[in-house]
Design goal:
The chain has 151 residues and is mostly beta strands. 0% of the residues lie in helices and 43% in strands. Strand 4 and strand 5 form a beta hairpin.
């Protein structure tokens, strides 16, 4: 048997493993793999049509899949006014409880006066404070607390 074509119908479906021109002897097999990578959420149908010189050609393989919408990415963007004192950077802290205790979010001090927290989760409230650090690595007290509630 000689495979003359492998056609895929349906949005998001792909096939691999059985290429046109492939010759199979009696008893020989080939693996045909189907993948589904939808661009949109919802149900989808498709097919793989394998055409050959075999008596039962073409062979139609029906496909179906359900695309799931990607989880929305959430973040909190913070910005603050630069310190009037001489500073080498800033540290950002957060807590799930108003007034702390706070956990440091920045692995090293920031030179910028802004920070984006990409680790927030839906339905949670976060409380943030910032500290300034001078060249002797001395850290100021916490800034005024701000909060963000993630919808």
């Amino acid at each position: 048997m000689t495979i003359s074509s492998v056609a895929v119908a349906g949005s998001g479906f792909n096939a691999s493993g059985a290429a046109p021109g492939l010759i199979l002897s009696r008893g020989q097999t080939v693996n045909l793999s189907a993948t589904f990578d939808p661009a949109v959420a919802g149900n989808a149908t498709g097919s793989i049509i394998v055409t050959s010189n075999a008596a039962n050609s073409p062979i139609v393989i029906t496909l179906s899949g359900t695309g799931v919408a990607p989880e929305a990415s959430r973040s909190v963007s913070l910005s603050w006014t630069a310190s009037t004192s001489s500073v080498s950077g800033y540290n950002v802290y957060s807590s799930s409880v108003s007034g702390g205790p706070y956990a440091k979010l920045t692995p090293s001090e920031l030179a910028a006066t802004s920070y984006t927290d990409n680790s927030v989760q839906e339905g949670q409230t976060y409380y943030y404070v910032v500290t300034a650090v001078n060249s002797q690595n001395q850290e100021s007290g916490y800034s005024e607390q701000v909060s963000a509630t993630i919808p």
